[in-house]
Specification:
Blueprint lengths: L8 H12 L11 E2 L7 E2 L7 E4 L1 H7 L4 H6 L4 E5 L7 E5 L7 E5 L2 E3 L17 E8 L3 H4 L6 E7 L7 E9 L3 E11 L6 E15 L14 E17 L2 E15 L10 E18 L2 E17 L7 E19 L2 E16 L8 E15 L2 E12 L2 E13 L4 E12 L3 H5 L11 E13 L3 E19 L11 E21 L2 E14 L4 E2 L6 E11 L2 E10 L2 E2 L7 E2 L2 E11 L4 E8 L18 E10 L1
Parallel strand pairs: 6-9
Antiparallel strand pairs: 1-2, 3-8, 4-5, 6-7, 8-9, 10-11, 10-34, 11-12, 12-13, 13-14, 14-15, 15-16, 16-17, 17-18, 18-19, 19-20, 20-21, 21-22, 22-23, 23-24, 24-25, 25-26, 26-27, 26-28, 28-29, 29-32, 30-31, 32-33, 33-34
Length: 616
Amino acid sequence: MILRISCPAALTSLALAMAASYAHAEPTAGTVLVTATRSPQALADVISDSITISAEQIAESGAGSIVDLLQRQRGIEIARTGGSGTNATVFIRGANSNQNLVLVDGVRIGSSTTGAANWSAIPLTAIDHIEIVYGPLSSLYGADAIGGVIQIFTKKGKGAPAFTAFAGYGTDNTREGDVSLSGATGGEHSISYAISAGKEKSDGFSSTRPGNFSYNADKDGYDRENAAGQFSLRLAEGHEIGTLLLRSKLKSQYDSGSSSYDTRSAAKLENAAIYSKNQILPIWQSLVQYSQTKDDGANYSGPLASNYSQINTKQTTFTWQNDVQIGADVLQLLYDHRKEEVVTNGFKLDKPQRTTNSLAASYNARRGDNLFNASVRRDKSLYGSKNTGSLGYGYNFTQALRATASYGTSFRAPTYNELYYPSYGNPANKPELGKNAEIGLRYDSGATALNASYYRNRLTDLLVNTTPCPFSGAKSGCAYNVNHALLEGLTMGASQQLGRVNLAATIDLQDPKDETSNKRLQRRAKKHGNLMADYSAGALKAGVELELSGDRYEDAANSNRLGGYGLVNLYATYHFNRDWSALVRWNNIGDKQYDLARNYATPMSKLFAGIRYGYK
């Protein structure tokens, strides 16, 4: 099938400019990428389409949340029902939130009832850098890695003690502050440490607009606080033990009609892990990790006890990963055991817990200018056994130019809601399945670079709300494996350094379609992109961003259209000296009203300023 997508003049000009004049330089946090193969790999050997958002970029972005930061990346769209504290959906290459996997320091996070991560509860202040790998990775990570994997890395200690502190203030009485301390001791038995804490509070704005059934003109604010830590001890050469900790709490108001009651939700994310890395033999490195993630949510919709609901989910995982060096190649053997538990006050689950046992193997090789990887995995749970695999190949025409091709299968496990929620779930529901093929081209000469990837991801057995319910006749509908979808598109990125000026651009031309109805998938545009330019002169760095999106549809029938939009943002960072710096960010300078979800408000013109202190 040939991808046919029309686009407005602005986006067409952007694509032509990228092809003719400058190319894309993916931001990197170092010389290696972890997520693409589950172990550190030189960027020159990575076949998967991927990007990294560095610590410096996060610090200079002035972004109010991780969702705001992700929205500026290629291949990613968002939908949100209000401000930074409200529910958000992150689409990767057209795939829904529950079709994408989110990791924090290698630990899977997300709700077992919805299947998606609670993006609003993830603290941006605790993050060191982010890796995004596009395309299916179920053969490495198991269920839900259909559209891609986003891995968040918290701050890690190294070198001399370093301390940072930040305080900022902005529109809507938004206050933010965070502190961090990190470092490592020397000697044979060295200890590394990194601890951070942050708090953000805002009066917010009304999360709904007139026309929404729950509209209330009052402000809907949020309060988010977090703490994180990493500690490790070097026992001997090649042997290390450590622990990872993250805790975040979010209180968020939302609208529920004209009632004077303070309707609100509370979310808590807890992530903890202990691990042991051991160089058992010169060619054999072992990683054993035990982790536990809690995703708790409460909702207060009224003054009565019956208006209170609580759903807590917990995932406990044991992982044993073995990387064996075979000459220049790496063979990886993996065992995973994951247990999910759900506790709720609203209804009784027939099966409040389930376990998944997994075995996987992968092989990564390089022969001259040829790159190769292959992986297979088998996951077994109460929904049955699922086998996934992938093959990837890359060829370096020159040191700067590389072509890649890959094919991979994936699946999404039914959530607890889709299996057991009263009058909605069906225990007989099967996993969704995906088959993805893609080709890519990368060029990187230092100051100039280009990245372009074409993908075609066919999904079957999609779980959708079918009305009336085919097995019970309920008019309210139920979750049922009925639909097919095709996620097809071309994603491109480009950048060019011209002296003190850096230019960058991204564009996504896609066709995320429900093949059963021949309609576009909800809240996804056929085209979206970004234009960015920044200028550096001594202590000053200033930039401008343009966010562009085509129209989307609010409903599956494609009858409720959400218009396209373009937003202009400005930002600047100034370093007074080695230790002190300030940043200013002005988002949506045109004060444009736009829609990410029908009759839900989005931020208008917002100004934020902050000052940072840090020493090493």
